[in-house]
Task: inverse folding
């Protein structure tokens, strides 16, 4: 480990390909949508999700995070399986649950994006392609490598600054550290840890890359939401994210990617809550 002040940073590691595992030919690809009060858009996002990719059926899950409107109803009507929380637990908690549920369903790959229409579900085949080909464990849809049709100026600046921080910490060519469209292999989903409930972006990347997950980006299109209200407020976001990143950097991450040393019967939820 490298000591910087009181923060322990993992040294860069060469990505390591995990052992080859046999995967059923009909194993699903899971796309889950964290959603809180998104009745205006969730049905359209679900309906546009591809039904199959290559030989794999696509299962769309909506993680209804304590919505008080008709989000769950609209999602079911469009064909999604809906998992509901009675209270709003936060985006990070919704992503943790989505990863757990995808693993339980035997997903060969799991992806997630927002339910507000900012990201195109039609990009799912491109997002999971590096995983299905065995070339990556963790894929991020990069808005800045693709097409940004509209983004508020202060959010663009904030994204650029936080992405630069991630590039420096991970020594990885990351172009979009805050993208809301990501995909993980089954093995990455089993081992991913998200250490706070407010958000997931920085801590998920730090966790997976520190342990040698193979990283890739694909260009995607992006359009800022046209309905509803984003939960992100710059001051609140930084106040929640910076301490979480600090905690992640202090966590010992000296476990190799292919065999991380956890007991064979450890559950995904247990692994994610560790540290």
Result:
């Amino acid at each position: 480990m490298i000591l910087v002040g009181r923060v322990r940073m993992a040294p860069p590691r060469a990505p390591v390909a995990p052992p080859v595992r046999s995967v059923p030919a009909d194993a699903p690809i899971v796309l889950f949508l964290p959603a809180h009060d998104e009745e205006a858009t969730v049905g359209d996002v679900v309906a546009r999700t591809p039904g199959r990719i290559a030989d794999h059926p696509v299962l769309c899950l909506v993680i209804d995070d304590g919505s008080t409107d008709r989000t769950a109803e609209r999602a079911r009507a469009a064909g999604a399986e809906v998992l509901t929380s009675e209270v709003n637990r936060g985006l990070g908690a919704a992503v943790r649950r989505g990863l757990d549920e995808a693993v339980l369903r035997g997903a060969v790959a799991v992806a997630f994006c927002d339910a507000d229409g900012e990201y195109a579900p039609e990009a799912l085949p491109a997002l999971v392609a590096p995983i299905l080909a065995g070339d990556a464990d963790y894929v991020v849809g990069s808005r800045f490598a693709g097409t940004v049709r509209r983004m508020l100026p202060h959010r663009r600046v904030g994204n650029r600054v936080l992405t630069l921080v991630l590039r420096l910490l991970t020594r990885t060519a990351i172009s979009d550290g805050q993208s809301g469209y990501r995909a993980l292999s089954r093995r990455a989903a089993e081992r991913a840890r998200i250490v706070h409930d407010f958000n997931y972006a920085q801590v998920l990347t730090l966790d997976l890359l520190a342990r040698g997950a193979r990283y890739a980006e694909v260009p995607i299109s992006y359009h800022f939401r046209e309905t509803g209200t984003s939960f992100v407020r710059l001051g609140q976001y930084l106040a929640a994210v910076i301490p979480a990143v600090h905690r992640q950097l202090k966590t010992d991450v000296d476990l190799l990617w292919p065999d991380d040393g956890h007991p064979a019967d450890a559950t995904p939820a247990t692994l994610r809550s560790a540290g």
